[in-house]
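pls design
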C-alpha cells in the first residue's frame, strides 16, 4: 500500500482519559480488524498525520 505508518503519529490515535490508554477513533469492520491484527496490512488507509499548522494555513 504505501509507506508504513505508526499509530503513535496518527491524528486518530487519541488518549482515552476514562480508560487511561490510547485508542484509535476509527471503527474498523471485522475484515479490516482481522487484516490489521494479522499484520497483513502495510499501512493504515485511515492514517491522518497530525498537522499542527493546518488551521493556520486555512485562516490565511
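designed seq:
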Amino acid at each position: 500500500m504505501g509507506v508504513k505508518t505508526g499509530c503513535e503519529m496518527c491524528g486518530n490515535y487519541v488518549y482515552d482519559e476514562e480508560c487511561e490508554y490510547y485508542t484509535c477513533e476509527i471503527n474498523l469492520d471485522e475484515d479490516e480488524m482481522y487484516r490489521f491484527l494479522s499484520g497483513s496490512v502495510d499501512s493504515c488507509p485511515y492514517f491522518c498525520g497530525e498537522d499542527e499548522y493546518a488551521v493556520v494555513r486555512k485562516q490565511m
